[in-house]
Request: fold
Amino acid sequence: MNELPRAVVLLSGGLDSTTVLAIARSQGYEPCALSFRYGQRHAIELERAREVARAMGVTKHVVAEIDLRVFGGSALTGDAEVPKGRRGDEIGGGIPITYVPARNTIFLSFALAYAEVLGATDIFIGVNALDYSGYPDCRPEYIEAYERMANLATRAGVEGGRPLKIHAPLSSMSKADIIRTGVALGVDYGITCSCYDPGPEGQPCGGCDACLLRAKGFAEAGFEDPLLQRSR
Reply:
């Protein structure tokens, strides 16, 4: 029996990365999940990532330990307050304090190393360029540039093997479209965590950019967020 090709899937435990994991699986890959404990204040997302991986039958799930608090520069890795209650035009109107400097570049570098070890040539990441919070490392041109670099820096690229492909299937989708896609693939969004400033039991704050974008997406998709149902 032919084995499924492996793919590294960056899994935060949030809505977007969980949807991407489901997409990778639906496209015939064996997803190998990679999560990070990087000093984030919302570390509850790692518990959700583990739950998501179990629910989706992921057999390989690695949690890499790095500490971006040594640099600071973000409300997610420091003491600055997470912005709450911003309007839609404010959320996409500049790079917010929740941006973690070079985070996706760091994460993709780890994913690239993991893929080489696994013999995988596919990496999936849940970046989105429509309903996003103004992060520069979520843009399609960034992903394209990183993919070109990755194929200059890997054994497969140098020795003429199959080129590495970075898949960003959510890039041009609205949050509502992402949710509709996940629902169609059987994703249980009640076990995900999107909030930047959750309560001690993982309850969403309801006011940070991530919570507001999630609420907007569910409203536009015509579904009730199962996470809110479980939080009541």
The chain has a mean pLDDT of 90. Strands lie at 6-10, 30-37, 60-65, 122-124, 165-167. The chain has one domain: 6-231. Residues 103-118 form the longest helix (16 residues).
